[in-house]
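Quick note —
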Amino acid sequence: MPKQSLEKKHHIIYLGLPIALSVIGSFLLLYQYFFAWNEALPIQAEIFSEMIEIPLDIYNWGIERYSLDVENYLVFQNFETLLPTTQIPKTLAFGIITWLLISLGLSLISTFKRYHFIAAMAFLIFLLTISGVNALNIGGISSNLALIILLAGMAVPAMLINVFYDHISLIKRTLIISPIAIITLLGLILSSSATAPLLLMSENISLAGMAITAIFLLYIGHSLINGFFLLLTKLNQGIGLKISWHLTVFTVLYIGCLVFILLDLTGNLELPFHAPLFPLFLLAGSLGSLETQSKVKQINQPYSLPIIGKSLYWIGFGISTMVFWKAQFSANRPLIDFLEHWTVYTQMAFSLLFFMYLLANFTGFMNSGKPVADVIYRPKFFAYHHMRIGSIMALFSLIVFSDAIIGPQISTSSTNFSADYYYATDRPTEARILFENSWIRYRKNEKAKVATILLYLKENQSTIAKKHMEESLEWSPSVHEIILAANYAHHKNRYFDAVFYLQKGLEIFPDNSYLENNLALLLSKGNKAQDTYELISKAATKNQSARANMIGLQAKHLINYDDKTPHNNDLIAQINLMAMNNLRGDLAAFHLQADQSKDITVKQAILRNQWSNNPKKSLTEDLKLLEELEEGAKTTMDLKQLKISRVIRFYQSGQIGEALKHLNGLMLDDKSSAGYYHALAAKILIGQGDLEKSAKELVLAEEFGFRNFNSSLIPVLYYGKQRPKALEIAKKYDINAPDWLDLPTAEATPANVDMQYFQFLSELLKATKQDFLQKIETLPNNPMKPILAHEILLKKGHWLNKQEVNTLKDYLLQQNGIDEAYIQELSQTLLSDKYPASVSSPILAHSMAFQEDLTPNPYNAPFVLMKAAQTNDPEVQYELLRNAADFNPDPILWIEMIKTSEKIGLGNYGQAALEELSGWVDQQTVQNLRVQSQ
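Predicted structure written out below.
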């Protein structure tokens, strides 16, 4: 094979592959830390909802204003610590890549000279011994057969080639040794009776990976100082600067930083922040490749090809990145701590001794400007070995200084590997025992403690779980443990304990958005609005869920009410912002759709809040969606809220009759909330000017427990023919009637102008033309007069001739702030003989209900009669008129309904309706109206 082609293959196999895997491992490590750190031990935002009252509509009756208040959803997100998630795909990828690199490295080791090969084989046997291969139970439990087979499959081929076939090329060695090593382990896995044997070996091989990583970190202990020194010598060639000073300053600063980090790791000094140390490992590992190249050139190596040393370096780097990644994605805190401690120990010990080695042997030479990098390991090679020995001694000193904490770290890391395996294979009891044991031996171990607590809770052993929570808070609590303890206390109605845990947590972890968010929600429940807002506004700058909560808390507490908080297209934030818009009476600039979420609470919130603002779809589409949600409702409360949303949707479409009918159904189905439903119906009826029915509903609401009466409701009761009840409720709830209504003397003294207008309003629906035209003409000017004039046009326009319509129209157009286009179009419509196909005024369109299958507001009698007139089917006409007559006592409407009933053979019903009509219209007027309708 041509030499150039062989070198190319060597570079692809022995450099390209390990470097590629090292780069992949580095990116996986960076991604895991910065973007998926919460994956193994998740903190997840769990939603809950609260209700606020918003004004769905405002009724202005001149001297009194009434608000139709309904509830909107505020959706909040409370962070909760969940059970660890299994990391099976990542663990398998880690195990496969690690074993592939070990197998590749084994073929390279077979090229070593005799004594070096023996030492390498001894290290390999050590790695296989701690690999946990016997856990595969080949040949029975506690049998060593699996280890023996693995040793034979890995060591024997390499030994035979090294002893008898040393002339074989590197590629041939790889094609023999590596496949046999891979196939041997694969055969053992396939022959194993253990549960998920591939996963078992992927977890167990972590110990071997840790050992390789420890050796690799020793090797690159001084690579950062060495890399900086090599850079300085390159820049100084031919110049002759005193780079020893530059090296000294850099080393002092670097060693000083490492000292502070070490003190922080050992608890002797608390730094304001704790930065991860894997970037230091990645930097040192990258620079270490330069050191390896220099050593290969300057020192006699136990192998013949330089590429072997470079490849072994990158294999070690690749395995080390995988181990760092494994520590991160499995949230194995003892392993993370071991890697950080060991990185600091090796960097301190080897960097310091290497710096002394450079100064002792190359001070004058390095400042001369000559290429000192080419001879750094040559002239005094034994001095370099002595430096290594000194570094090992310094390393042991650092281990002793740190109370040999790496011992428990290594041990508990191994226990966590086993616990993860049992947890991933759905054996929670075994996993819980191992996690519990792991925490006992190493307290800074949040995953183990959280898993123990949550698994105990899953087993309904709350007493033991609570004991473990208390233990975790006493020692080294993490954010996960604090959140878990606080949420558990809150769940058990220990409000002040929950607040205390979160407040103490913020002392340990200041500015943690999860703790700030949860504490803000708790303080909100305690009505501490200002403290709540200060906390949530801090969290909102760092967390999208907290930002959504901030909007909800602004609406709930009416604090910083006018602040415009961006929602960034976050669904929960938009739901809360929609409620805020409804509270302000503003139209939202965005539209919510129920299919944006699968959560039933979120769906309900979307429908309620969007429909309270501005429904976008047709009533038919929305009702179909509502029926689907009602079928899937899991609780009676969900079903109840969906039915209230149906009422709101009907109201927003102008289907007042349907809204009131469904409210009546809710009153019958849900007696416990009947008072609320009766009060809601009463306010809808107030908006239609039907004070008589509204007063009846208020009386019923009071009987069913409604207590939220105010002074503006007293005139409704009084003029709604419930005068004794008005006096009783005013006295019972210590409510003063409005200033214009003096209840005690109202019947004995002449009515003032305001009282006359309210009396007029209460009688308008039942009034005939003679009554309402004469009265409004004789009433003096008052802010309420234009309102009543509009009511006559809208609800009594079918009584009026062209002159009378124009007279009222002209009067209204003279008023300030009137919608002239609407009044003009309303008048034209009333004078038209046909029901228009469309109108331009949105107000008029809402009153006339142009959508398919919709009927006009039953209180807008002119439009009901127009709609009936354009219908050719008498039965449809009757149904339309009868439904309107159920609510509206207008005499002409009733006469038309009676006449239509007679056409379809329902004379008995018509006669009964005629007798009922005589209760508020005299016989002569009824006869005249019947004659006119012929």
